[in-house]
Amino acid sequence: MSNQVKPVRVLVVGCGNMGASHATAYHNNPGFEIVGLVARGKSKEVLNDKMGANYPLFDDMNSAMAATHPDAVCISTYPDTHEAYAIQAFEAGCHVFIEKPVADSVEGAQRVLDASKKADKKLVVGYILRHHPSWEKFIELTGNLGKPLVMRMNLNQQSDGANWAVHRNLLNSLSPIVDCGVHYIDVMCQMTRSKPVQVYAIGARLTDDIPADNYNYGQLQIRFEDGSVGWYEAGWGPMISETAFFVKDVFGPKGSVSIVAKDAGGGGKSASIEAHSKTESILFHHADLDKDGKFAKEDLLINLDDEPDHQELCNREQRYFLKAMVEDLDLSEHGDDAVNSLRIAFACDESVRTGKVVSLL
Predict the structure, then answer these.
(1) For 267-300, how does the pLDDT look when each residue is reduced to its tens digit (9 = 90+)?
(2) pTM, to two decimals
(3) Which of 76, 240, 256, 302 is the most exposed place for a label (fewest CB within 10 A)?
(4) Phi, psi for residue 299 in degrees, rounded to 5
(5) CA 138, CA 204: separation in Å to the nearest integer?
(6) Could you give the 3-state DSSP secondary structure of residue 26?
(7) CB-based contacts of 223-227 (< 8 A; 24+ apart in sequence)
(8) Nearest Cα to 79, choosing from 53, 108, 46?
(9) What is the pLDDT of residue 49?
């Protein structure tokens, strides 16, 4: 990146949990210069104070874009605004980093991807697990298990107070298995590198505090062309159980690989964004048997004590965004994967609403 002469001027739109983390990454990276913080409420003032900064503050994207003319825009708002904001940024000649999901519909996500290609600007989607060395290792190790794979994953979040307020806002546009599920569907697709052919999903509306046509608990199942299968479940709200809220487990003919998160998987941690990406250790179990029918190899526990925290993961995401812009990386596969995982998640959503198996062929 030595050919970069001046920092990328970035406008930060959305200053909540993820927006604040991305802004902090820009603030501490000399490759970026923040030209403004955009949010409807007080979160932008809080973030400015927290960073000890005096960045220009804006209540809406239109006035911010007109005043700052940025090189890049970081979008960490609620999903129902993603499409419009991203397309506006591309039409203004900006690169875009956008939190997942790309949009609140598959068609919208494709329109965002098309806009990036038309503008010839970079689109990086916030698939944070793709920048996590432990998850990269987890995915790599599953390559030793043979096929088909059985993939079992969940992230149930028992939330109250501010966390439940965030979840209720998200539930105005998306279900948990779409909003969170895209991460883990993406992981499953990386593990199998096989075509998903069929999905089935169930869901339950556990409170009147959310829209009548949405549900705050869901579980999805995916069948892949190579015979692999996977499930993922996600629930949000004060009623959600924390018993086994954190399961990340894969097995195949040759053994199993599991993320063991004793601390992050403990009680009271399910709504913590720090806990969501935390791994701590990976357990590798070999299925090999000796002549007596006993296990021939010891289980291997790979400790991950030096893993990056949530902020460092966001730092890595933004270093990748910078690299993509400066080195003109080809992000076509990245964009296609983001739209594909969303397409699968919405097929699961359709299955919940119709009660039917949905074919992806």
Answers:
(1) 555 655 554 445 578 999 999 999 999 999 999 9
(2) 0.87
(3) 302
(4) -65, 145
(5) 31
(6) helix
(7) 223/196, 223/197, 223/198, 223/199, 224/148, 224/188, 224/192, 224/194, 224/195, 224/196, 224/197, 225/194, 225/195, 225/196, 225/197, 226/147, 226/148, 226/192, 226/194, 227/147, 227/148
(8) 108
(9) 97
